[in-house]
TrEMBL record, chain B:
Originating gene: PIGH
Lineage, broadest ranks: Eukaryota, Metazoa, Chordata, Craniata, Vertebrata
Domain Phosphatidylinositol N-acetylglucosaminyltransferase subunit H conserved: start-end pairs: 89-158
Protein name: Phosphatidylinositol N-acetylglucosaminyltransferase subunit H isoform X6
Entry-linked PANTHER family: PHOSPHATIDYLINOSITOL N-ACETYLGLUCOSAMINYLTRANSFERASE SUBUNIT H
Keywords per UniProt: Glycosyltransferase, Membrane, Transferase, Transmembrane, Transmembrane helix
Keyword Membrane: yes
MF annotations from Gene Ontology: glycosyltransferase activity
Annotated source species: Tursiops truncatus
InterPro entries referenced in this protein's UniProt entry, alphabetically: PIG-H, PIGH-H_dom
Length: 598, 188
């Protein structure tokens, strides 16, 4: 049976706090240091003046006295304190607990030193007692942290036991205390991804340099943080979860329910995507139409996103998890906005009003176009057009408008029904409704598109003709074989006719150019409106709302690194730093960029 | 232990360098930039409002004046929060790393921390800046592929832009700590 240590007080500590109980005098160990069994430590070849770092959790700063439990990283000369074991304890049970934790988490957890939270300065006998503990849990170097209750003065010693040659000369090193918040470090996920399960205990983080080793240690010691103060275990620990484990019922329920729900939805979505990729839809006219309609594009995009969200594979790293969460939140927001739009439309019976207003608006647009053409056929902006060409083009376009108006009037009885069904599609999301709106605009302004195509085609032909005849005028020719301009000797009649045609085309140029300009501007206007709608759709698709929400509510989840702050320093006391998690300013980007407007 | 000296930056403005010596392994330099002067603030405000009055006499719309007031206020707040740096701090901790903090006039702080394992060296470089040749202090970062290569150059004190005498002070102290760190880290 091991020795039982009851508190740490000797005779003389009359003003000790109530947490201390007087111990039997024979339980006090021999104050002279016993040499450790393994002899000189090969890692202690440091010279004097080396600074050791001790990472201390802020939650333990007000804990009662006890033992420091954690991991020693020799490459960084730093000790990561994970928890404090309080008096009274049985050393054998402490060693058992640490062996259990080591096996479960593959982290080399040991006793690093002692922690003393006293009302006044350490007494000599107490000092010997604490050093004696170092003989039982032999660890090099042995840390002795001490803090006066209610004051900000800390003291820290790190001692090395030398070999049997010089028992009294134990070297002391300077220690730098770095405080860290365990909860924030764990939740900010700054540690590298989980190591493979077949690695040896404690050797993975030899490759992770610097602070990554510290974060990895804290992250992998979950087994140590499982026992809180309500557990009736043999050993009483103090760490960030010692007031009770943090968990949320809703999160646990959601995790339990997520499995079957995801499976069901994944099956449903795979059925839908299989149906939509069947051969019928790939025939030429249909596939051409599908590619032109932005609604189909948006629906396909949404289907892909939903398949990714509800896939039964877990996310491999935090970035993927963030992306999935962003997609889910954007889908939910989309559907919510769509339902709001639908309820608003139905409440005010806007669909009927819209259907009634559509025909007069189309008529009005056609009338304005007719006025524009009449203006072009006259003397637009004071320019003098070629009368014959002007009349031909103007009449041609006017006839088109007449056809278009007849077509719209033919469709008018069905408009309301179509609009009602379109409004219903807002259930799928606001983005789908906006895409349908953009497609309707494209269909209604189809005649403007046709005019643009005619004007552009004519202008293009004219320019090609002009450039070719201009070359002829100068005595040159385009060599198709060599892709360059060569000189060529033309006959006299070729030159004569060529020059005539050139003159004709030059004088007809202003008319064609003006028509081309006017219709291009109209087409640009329509494209600008469609582009705005697509911009709005892309905004809803790709805004990372989940990350924005995290940035506002839980900024430490988006941590990019750490920053240090020097706390109040007194000469003779160890240097104290506070390590805080610093937040990333740039949000992680979403998976799909902007699409081209249809 | 605190120490304050006054230097000048490349344009001739006054800078104050505060050096705090916490321990032989921890040193902090705080360089404070010239403050925003009342003269420049008045000049900008007056020009914006004169322009607004000019527009107002043309358009007879009083919204322009309210808009000018909003623009001035928002512009000043934005300038103080995003542009104007009050002081820059360099904290060197032996065996941990180097941290640079920029504090803006509105109190916002932006911090970058570089671990000591990534730091190759701290040097003073020359650069051509507009029509001048200036000196600047920078940290050279190690290349993970090549043991003696440099992967990145991180300039320090970019807003304060001190002159060479100030840089030499900071450089000497940095080199002391880096040399000490290299000497003690050669053990396995």
């Amino acid at each position: 049976m091991g020795l039982v240590f009851r508190g740490a007080a000797e005779a003389g500590l009359g003003a000790a706090s109530a947490a201390d109980r007087p111990g039997p005098p024979d339980a006090v160990p021999n104050p002279t240091p016993t040499p450790p069994a393994e002899g000189a430590d090969p890692g202690s070849s440091r010279g004097p003046g080396m600074v050791l770092k001790a990472f201390f959790p802020t939650c333990c700063a007000s804990a009662d006295s006890g033992l420091l439990v954690g991991r020693w990283v020799p490459e960084q000369s730093s000790a990561v304190v994970l928890a404090v074991v309080h008096f009274p304890f049985i050393p054998v049970q402490v060693k058992e607990l640490l062996a259990q934790v080591q096996q479960a988490s593959q982290v080399g957890v040991t006793v690093l030193g002692t922690w003393c939270h006293r009302r006044q300065e350490l007494e000599e006998s107490l000092g010997h007692f604490l050093e004696g503990l170092g003989a039982i849990f032999s660890h090099k170097p042995w840390f002795q942290l001490c803090r006066e209750r209610g004051s900000k003065s800390w003291s820290c010693k790190a001692t090395h036991w030398r070999g049997p040659a010089s028992p009294a000369a134990s070297g002391e090193d300077q220690v730098m205390l770095i405080f860290y918040d365990q909860r924030k470090v764990l939740l900010s996920q700054l540690h590298p991804p989980m190591a493979l399960p077949d690695r040896q205990a404690g050797d993975t983080t030899a490759s992770a340099g610097g602070l990554a080793a510290v974060f990895d240690t804290v992250a992998r010691s979950e087994a140590l943080f499982q026992s809180d103060r309500f557990n009736e275990g043999p050993v009483r620990l103090s760490h960030w979860q010692s007031e009770g484990m943090e968990a949320s019922i809703l999160v646990e329920l959601a995790k339990w329910a997520a499995g079957p729900v995801c499976l069901f939805l994944a099956c449903l979505l795979s059925l839908i995507s299989a149906a939509s990729s069947c051969r019928v839809f790939k025939l030429w006219p249909l596939s051409f139409i599908w590619s032109k309609l932005s609604t189909c594009e948006q629906l396909r995009h949404r289907l892909e996103q939903l398949t990714l969200i509800f896939s039964t594979r877990k996310a491999k790293n935090p970035a993927q998890l963030m992306r999935k969460a962003n997609m889910l939140v954007s889908v939910l927001l989309d559907v919510a906005l769509g339902l709001t739009l639908l309820s608003w439309l139905h409440r005010k019976d806007l669909i009927g009003q819209l259907a009634d207003a559509l025909i007069p608006v189309a008529d009005h647009v056609a009338e304005e176009l007719q006025h524009l053409l009449q203006w072009l056929m006259g003397a637009p902006a004071g320019l003098k057009m070629n009368r014959a060409l002007d009349q031909v083009l103007g009449r041609f376009f006017l006839y088109h408008i007449h056809l278009w108006i007849s077509y719209i009037h033919l469709m008018s009885p069905f408009i309301e029904r179509i609009l009602w069904h379109v409004g219903l599609s807002a259930c799928l999301g606001l983005t789908v409704a906006l895409s349908i709106l953009s497609d309707i605009i494209a269909l209604l302004t189809f005649h403007i598109y046709c005019f643009y195509v005619y004007g552009a085609r004519l202008y293009c032909l004219k320019i090609h003709g002009l450039s070719s005849l201009w070359r002829l005028f100068r005595g040159k020719k385009w060599n198709v074989l060599r892709q360059r301009v060569d000189s060529c000797s033309y006959d006299l009649d070729q030159l004569f006719i060529g020059t005539l045609l050139f003159t004709i085309l030059v004088f007809l140029l202003p008319t064609t150019a003006l028509y081309y300009l006017v219709f291009t501007l109209l087409r640009l206007l329509v494209v600008a409106v469609q582009g705005l709608i697509h911009l709005l759709v892309d905004l809803i698709n790709s805004l990372p709302l989940y990350s924005l929400g995290l940035r506002l509510c839980r900024p430490y989840r988006l941590a990019a690194g750490v920053k240090f702050r020097v706390l109040e320093h007194e000469t003779g006391r160890p240097l104290r730093l506070l390590m805080q998690v610093s937040i990333a300013c740039i949000l992680p980007c979403s998976s799909k960029g902007l699409r081209e407007p249809g | 232990m605190e120490d304050e000296q006054s230097f000048s930056d490349i344009c001739g403005g006054r800078l104050a360098l505060q050096r705090r010596f916490y321990s032989p392994s921890c040193l902090e330099f705080c360089l404070s930039c010239p403050r925003i002067t009342l003269r420049s603030l008045t000049a900008v405000t007056c020009s914006v409002w004169l322009a607004a009055y000019g527009l107002f006499t043309l358009c007879e719309n009083s919204m322009i004046l309210s808009a000018a007031i909003f623009i001035t206020l928002l512009g000043l707040l934005g300038y103080l929060h995003f542009v104007k740096i009050d002081h820059e701090t360099l904290l060197i901790i032996d065996s941990l790393g180097i941290q640079m903090t920029s504090s803006y006039a509105s109190g916002k702080e932006s911090t970058t921390f570089i671990e000591m394992g990534q730091v190759n060296d701290v040097v003073i470089n020359e650069a051509i800046y507009m029509q001048k040749v200036i000196y600047y202090l920078c940290i050279l970062l190690k290349d993970p592929m090549e043991p003696h290569g440099i992967s990145q150059v991180v300039p320090l004190f970019q807003s304060a832009k001190p002159r060479l005498d100030c840089l030499i002070e900071v450089y000497r102290s940095c080199q002391d700590i880096l040399a000490h760190q290299k000497a003690t880290s050669t053990s396995p």
